[in-house]
Amino acid sequence: MRGALGIVATLLVLAGLDFALNRAINPYIFQIVMLCGINVILAVSLNLINGFTGQFSIGHAGFMALGAYGSAMFSLGIGGKWAAGLAAAGLPAPIATGVPLAVALVIGGLVAAIAGYLVGLPSLRLRGDYLAIVTLGFGEIIRVIITNVEWVGASRGLPGIPGWTSFFWVGVGVVGVVALSLNLANSTHGRALFAIRDDEVAAEALGVNTTGYKVLAFVIGSFFAGVAGGLFAHYLSYLNPNTFVFLKSIEVIAMVVLGGLGSVSGSVIAAIVLTVLPEVLRPVKEYRMVIYSLMLIVLMITRPQGLFGYRELRWPFRKAAPGTRT
After folding, report:
1. How confident is the model at residue 323 (pLDDT cuts 50, 70, 90)?
2. What is the model's pLDDT at position 114?
3. Which of 15, 107, 305, 313 would be 265's cystine partner, CB 3.0–4.6 Å?
């Protein structure tokens, strides 16, 4: 009962913020806020793989692309008709568009999760640099396929995607991935993931199914990467394969490393900082990315464990996870 009330209260707060922010801030600031939320989902989902289990995946942009294109194709083919039918039935616009968007996001997430399972099952027996090379290759294969398939727009991109993403849906995605990550960290499964991260050989000797748990983390992380891709597609209403290049994966990795591998709080804050920082530095024009890069280098030299390390902020109504400090 208490959990259900918490969910209802969270949804009401997000709906109220959605209504207020659309009217209180200008479109430029609102776009930055939306991109911050999408990047938080990406960073926390990658943290499940790189931080919780100690793996090194650099193909997250590929899973984001699968979710983006999978959800977009559903909306262009079926979701738009659903939205029109619900609107004709007299339902309010947020509900008429929200139902097909929710289905599209689930489809995008499932497409990415299935790909994560197919890639993860054979490749997660590998470790370190070998796993990084496999995931890098996967991400590039997905991008090249999308670039050459006419059905999804090929190199021209995919226009005309319904712009259904709102602050409410981005907020639901953020709350969902953060809540799941924190609850997973506090569970027996989380203890197994942390054991794999700390010493995989010892964990396997104690009976932990290391490959199974790594695949589980990979599938969950891929699912939320797909959801982030779906939100991104339905916010910009246009997809270009060049959005999902290798550098996009590096950008998300930088957020996870900067925040602290294994720290959900760190991933959230680092994703917001690294999304806002380039915009703050925009007045310096051509020196913007130079300053941005130098700041990251200095921080990694002075704080190699990231902003939080394994620590977490004191989230409301949450006990400390095993192996973490608050």
Report:
1. very low
2. 95
3. 313
Q: Cα angle at 218 between 36 and 326, to 5 degrees?
A: 60
Q: How many CB atoms lie within 10 A of CB 232?
A: 28
Whole-number mean pLDDT of the chain? 88
Q: Helix, strand, or coil here: 13?
A: helix
Among residues 113, 137, 106, which one has the least CA distance to residue 221? Answer: 113
Distance CA 221, CA 215 (A): 10
- Residue 259: which residues within 8 A CB-CB, separation 6 or more? 43, 47, 265, 266, 267, 268, 269, 270, 271, 306, 307, 308
Q: What span, in angstroms and rounded, lies between the C-alpha atoms of 273 and 280?
A: 10
Which H/E stretch holds residue 6? helix 2-24
Strand extents, DSSP E, the chain: 158-159, 238-239
Q: Torsion-angle region of residue 276: left (phi > 0), alpha (psi -120 to 50) or beta?
A: alpha
- With residues binned 3-state (H G I as helix, E B as strand, rest as coil), the percentages for the chain, rounded to 5, are 75, 0, 20
40 CB neighbour count, 10 Å cutoff: 24
Instruction: Pick the closest to residue 116 from 52, 190, 63 (CA basis).
Output: 63
CA distance 202 to 178: 29
Angle between helices 188-198 and 167-185 (to 10 degrees): 80
What is the Cα gyration radius of the chain?
20
